[in-house]
Amino acid sequence: MDFSNEEFLTRFLSKKIIDHLLAKGKEWLDLRKLESEYKKTLKFVMNYQLTEDETKNLLEKLADGLSKYNCKVLITSRPNYLSEGHLRDLNKRLGYTVWELQPFNLEEINEFLDKYKRNLEEKYDYKKNVNPENPPKVYFENFNILKDRVKENLREKEPLVDQPLLLYMLAHLYLREGKTPQIENDIDLYEELINAVIQRVWENDNHLKKVITSAEWDYLYRKFLEELAFLIEFSNKHYATLEEIEKLKVFETLKGKTKLSEKDLLGSLLIFFYLHRGGDKETQTVEFIHKTFQEYLAASNIYNRLLENLNMGNKEYENLIWDLFSKNQISPKVREFLETIIEKRREEDREKQNQFLEKMKEVFPYLLEKDFFVKPHELVGEKPLNKPLWCFGNLWVFASKVSELYLEELRDVPINERWRYHFLRTENSLKRRFCWFISVLQSQKETFIKNLNLSYMDLEGVEILGAKLSFVNFRYSNLRNSNFFRSDFFRANFYKANLAFSNLKSAYLRKVNLMHSSLKEAFLKKANLKGSYLRKSYLKDANIEDADLRGAIFDPEEIKKAKNWDKAIYDDEMKKKLGLE
């Protein structure tokens, strides 16, 4: 099975970058020499397993080698491959400029597809390169179908085909695998490609056909890839050693099923074209060439393991939760994939997802009571107390998404009453402990979760003082009589939330969505509401004395229902509308 054509994507992108730089025509930069250095560096990075520190060191050495030039540029389609801290450090000390690859336009897409096809035609020239009795199948008849669908997708609000990696995947699916999926979402494309390649491995291996069924192979090989992706994603070193791979439970299962030696089994498993082997014989390592596939498979692993093991006893399930979620903070991309998988598989997995919520009614409160210290002996290393916080936060990302989908389906219950059916029980002691965890979680950079989902929750009467709760989603939640004195809610979402009688004195509510929320008799003295959205909010008898409403959007007649509305701070134009000038 030959997937070396994947190098074409890298070559194409490299040429586009160099051509773009040359077109700039900067006399003070010898771009021809830069091209040579860039190609050497690109080859080095692609063929060795580099940690983040090693990548940083490489860039520093490259900077030293190019010190005679006036410009140093880091070009990437994933600017978060290096941490923001490292990027800032490089920029400060070395003067790097970070350029992110922009999406393709239609002209560039067509250029890529035409060259991809031409590359296949040259590569599989039957007269020169291929045994005519057994030529590799290339589905050139799908080329025009692909171009038409790509053009259609570009008209979408959020097209997929303008991303280089996804465009490459499509070209591979249509022309090499003979698949012609509709271009609707990236999850389906990943699944289509992964399944096609897994099946081809089995079809092309006569030994596998004799010892294992196609269905068994599909399940076990997919499980292997998911576990490998999870291992690498949360290892902090971007690769796995062969020793680590051989310790995976699914590897042992595959070895028994296929009756292959460890060496031969690894050979069969690791020809998958997303994987790259490196290092010497004693220290061989494996990594995913494209981190996106690693992230998707890691998210899929989390989803499947949580829903496939619901019959476990609570103690075993708590250990599973710890093993999945305590290693590190889930990355934004893994979270995005995880939430998308939950949503897309809601229809087929509704029963299992609802069973998971029933499990959480028992397990989550118990984990809170023990402060998420599931395996205290593993609280080692740098900042060990982050592990319980990661476990709490990552589990909440998963559970809150499933809960949100479940509650949105309760059509017979008024939407502002659905918080009564949230899986998290409403005892005051439990709410206090939950809010303490949220406050600590969001106060640290290593554990902070952007757009934390606290929708449809019963948090009536809670006390969260001076907490950093920016970007938190409180949609449809019951927050009556709560004390949020001096808390930071920058860009939080309180759409249709009930904040009646709550203390929001001196709270930072800048650019907050309070549309359709109830602020009846809420205490908002000296609150910062600059740029907030208050239209259709219920403000009767809310105290807004000295509250800063400059740039806020609200109904003038509604604001006058609040107490001390005339003592709030407005911009000049609004003062005129309110008759204060």
Question: How would you describe this structure to a colleague?
Answer:
The chain is mainly alpha-helical and 581 residues long. Among the domains are: 4-100, no CATH class; 106-184, no CATH class; 211-299, Arc Repressor Mutant, subunit A, CATH 1.10.10; 459-581, Pectate Lyase C-like (3 Solenoid). Helix content is 49%, strand content 3%. It contains 21 helices and five strands. It has a three-stranded antiparallel beta sheet with strand order 3-5-4. Strands 1-2 form a two-stranded parallel sheet. The termini are far apart.
Strand and helix layout:
Blueprint: H1 7-24, H2 31-47, H3 52-65, E1 72-76, H4 84-94, E2 96-100, H5 106-123, H6 143-154, H7 164-177, H8 186-203, H9 206-211, H10 214-233, E3 240-241, H11 242-246, H12 249-258, H13 262-269, E4 275-278, E5 285-288, H14 291-308, H15 314-325, H16 332-344, H17 346-369, H18 386-408, H19 428-443, H20 556-559, H21 572-577
Parallel strand pairs: 1-2
Antiparallel strand pairs: 3-5, 4-5
Helix pairs in contact: 1-2, 5-6, 7-8, 8-10, 10-12, 10-14, 14-16, 15-18, 16-18, 17-18, 18-19
Quick structural summary:
The protein is built from 21 helices and 5 strands.
Keywords:
581 residues; two-stranded parallel ribbon; Arc Repressor Mutant, subunit A; mainly alpha; 5 strands; 3-stranded antiparallel β-sheet
CATH fold descriptor of the domain at 459-581: Pectate Lyase C-like
Q: What name goes with the CATH superfamily of the domain at 459-581?
A: E3 ubiquitin-protein ligase SopA
Beta content? under 5%
Going by CATH, the architecture of the domain at 459-581 would be 3 Solenoid
Major β-sheet strand ordering:
3-5-4
